[in-house]
Write a structure and sequence with these properties.
mainly alpha, single chain, two-stranded parallel sheet
Length: 341
């Protein structure tokens, strides 16, 4: 019987794999962390040591209170400056008190401190820099996201963290980045537990606005648990988190870069739960949009991990599709667990 099953599985794979591959972009078309149309010109200019477009972009997000875009752009610009910061140095030299330049400077310093073997010591030195960024733009929640990450890295007590959290939500009650920072602090890897992490994420999702990425916060709690191999503790909550994130993803267009990181995260959770058909659908919705998170946390080459996961999902769906059935049903939750990561 095992030989028969193997032969049937191979026949299904041969028949259905080409059809399934056709709904996904070719490997060579997939891009890792591709910038959107607003950020791309700023990065090109920064490569030419011109900070002007980056300055104008961040000023526009601050003036229009586009806090989610601002947070993303600051993080991407700081990542670029990690290896090439001449444009940022020029910007700070010309405008040392510019709130946008100060914010990128603080984000870059945080990134370098987190990568240092002396992380906690280096982070403690950055308090005044984060305070300066917050004081320069009093309405901006992004410096408070930095402050929350800073508190986690410097082993701040819960009371201190709660004070920072109050300041963050006072500026933007539904800011995704601040919620992610809080979730990390409450995770079992840091100062909380898996249950505490889920409690926070689920309540935040319930309170979130329709279409908000915070709806996917429970999926991040699920990821945190799956990453350490304890996913069986809260299987129902993990599946419920995936369901909520699937519904959120369905509300955005295929190939939209805005929810790309959430969709990449969702794919990981679905694979680990053996929900192959839904995972394939998310890969279709992603189009060419691969993101470093979560793949950098499960392997050295995030793009290769993304493509390998996509191939594995396609194979699993093909093997489980009946030879004479053109359609595909939803994978059952009681099926085999994915062990891709």
């Amino acid at each position: 019987m095992s030989l028969l099953r193997a032969l049937i599985g191979t026949a299904r794979l041969v028949r259905h794999a080409p059809r399934l591959a056709a709904v996904l972009p070719p490997d060579d078309d997939v891009l890792l962390d591709a910038p959107d149309g607003r950020l791309a010109p700023a990065l090109v200019a920064a490569a030419l040591a011109d900070p002007g477009p980056a300055a104008r972009l961040l000023a526009a997000t601050r003036e229009a209170a586009e806090w989610e875009n601002r947070d993303r752009y600051v993080a991407r610009l700081a990542t670029f400056a990690y290896n090439r910061d001449d444009w940022l140095a020029q910007w700070l030299s010309a405008a040392p008190r510019d709130p946008d330049a100060l914010l990128v400077k603080a984000q870059l310093a945080m990134r370098k401190a987190w990568d240092s073997p002396a992380r906690a010591e280096r982070l403690r030195e950055l308090g005044p820099m984060i305070d300066a960024a917050a004081e320069a733009a009093p309405r901006d929640p992004v410096p408070w996201r930095l402050a929350l990450d800073h508190a986690r890295g410097t082993h701040a007590a819960h009371t201190e963290f709660e004070t920072l959290w109050e300041q963050a939500v006072r500026r933007s009650p539904h800011h995704y980045g601040c919620h992610v920072a809080a979730l990390k602090y409450l995770s079992a890897q840091w100062y909380g537990s898996h249950s505490e992490c889920f409690d926070f994420a689920e309540q935040a999702a319930e309170d979130a606005l329709p279409g908000s990425l915070i709806q996917a916060l429970p999926a991040r709690a699920a990821f945190a648990e799956l990453l350490v191999g304890t996913g069986r503790l809260h299987e129902d909550r993990i599946d419920a988190a995936a369901d909520r994130a699937v519904a959120l993803s369905a509300a955005y267009p295929v190939g939209d870069p805005w929810p790309a990181e959430v969709r990449n995260l969702l794919v990981y959770v679905l694979v680990r739960r053996g929900r192959w058909d839904e995972a394939l659908e998310e890969f279709r919705r992603l189009g060419p949009c691969a993101t470093s998170f979560p793949w950098t946390l499960v392997g050295e080459d995030p793009l290769a991990r993304f493509l390998a996961a996509r191939d594995a999902v396609r194979v699993e769906v093909a093997r489980s599709t009946p030879l004479r059935e053109a359609g595909r049903g939803r994978a059952g939750r009681g099926g085999p667990r994915g062990h891709y990561a």
